[in-house]
Amino acid sequence: MMHDICQAPVSLEDPALVEEWNGLIRxxxxxxxxxxxxxGAVLSxxxxxxxxxxxxxxxxxxxxxxxxxxxxxxxxxxxxAALAVAGGSARERLWVxxxxxWLDGRPSGAIAAMERVLADHxxxxxxxxxxxxxxxxxxxxxxxxxxxxxxLGAHKDHPLEGYLHxxxxxxxxxxxxxxxxxxxxxxxxxxxxxxxxxLHAVAHVYDMTARPDAGISLxxxxxxxWDHCNNxxxxxxxxxxxLHLDRGENDIVLALYDQQIRADKTDxxxxxxxxxxxxxxxxxxxxxxxxxWTELADFAQHRTDDGCLVFADLHYQLALGAAGRxxxxxxxxxxxxxxxxxxGEMPARVADPGKAxxxxxxxxxxxxxxxxxxxxxxxxxxxxxxxxxxxxxxxxERMTIDAGLRSGMYDAxxxxxxxxxxxxxxxxxxxxxxxxVSIQDARRIxxx
Length: 448
Fold this sequence. Notes:
Elements: E1 2-3, E2 9-10, H1 15-29, H2 35-45, H3 50-62, H4 66-86, H5 90-103, H6 107-120, H7 125-138, H8 141-152, H9 161-174, H10 178-191, H11 196-208, H12 212-221, H13 232-246, H14 250-261, H15 269-284, H16 292-300, H17 310-322, H18 326-340, H19 345-365, H20 369-379, H21 390-406, H22 410-423, H23 430-444
Antiparallel strand pairs: 1-2
């Protein structure tokens, strides 16, 4: 049996197809546009390659779109059929099991299958990245870090070592070890100059520690690390916009929104999340965003019954609320109530924190800031479980804090601000500084 670039067995007999598979691995790790092209070539040349179908299914589920579940289900059937005809290594069978577990509503089971692979093949960077990605969707920062650190030693002098350092950097940042995260991400970039994930991990560090100048320089001076990407490049532009926002350069933020972040009007949930969260941040800072909510709401109103990820649904609801699409908001709210009553890993996230968070967003859109604060604050302790990063979920933190200010709940709001600062290693960004001043000003008024 041949081995791929991860030094793991792969049941492909043609060296040219192994090279296509290796191309897929590199592209997937680098968030490159060529990932589906390489996968298509592999499956065309080896139609009984079960791991290829498993990859197709898992990658489809990661997209967080209801219609791609049909693609994933078919890929699962094809993978099982391929195993029956051609067999496969234990690694490949575990990949097929991972897809089946996720399709059955147990993404944690998919992670467990990937970890079984890594126990036997700790050099398998591809499986490590997939485990990392699913844990990210589930908001499991500690698990992400443990998983990567378990195989980090096996990647010394590995051809894909740089990408693993990039993953490690992100896990360190998400677990609050900012100094180590910066070092790991920069080391990864030295070894893999196209490691967009590692670069973005360091950008996270600079956001969380209120160093916007360093973050902007990092992105501008390492364009080859991310300009090759699929839509992940829009997310890097989003990070750059956040850093300019922290410098108070809202005009630059709007220009980045129009020229880069929404240059392509896609309905990928990750792109919608970039856009909605950035517009909301701008509005919280008093910037008028015009009719930019309209095209986002047009996409979002067709996603009220998606139900793949609470993270995606809440960002859809941001657009619907901002654009005043009351019928669609009501449809999303009704669907949340149904999903929350179901059993399973993802419905549990709808029940808590999803329902409370959605209720808070609805109240915020309607100007009922006392209710918005109560609901969003109630959701806050469990918000990490919806997935995404601290930086992405920070839009909900900001809305909670501003709802508290607008409803006059100064003591409770100040406590949230102090907790947010503590989670950022004591760094006070522009948002926190201005809100602390607002609280101080509000408290002085009655005494005058």
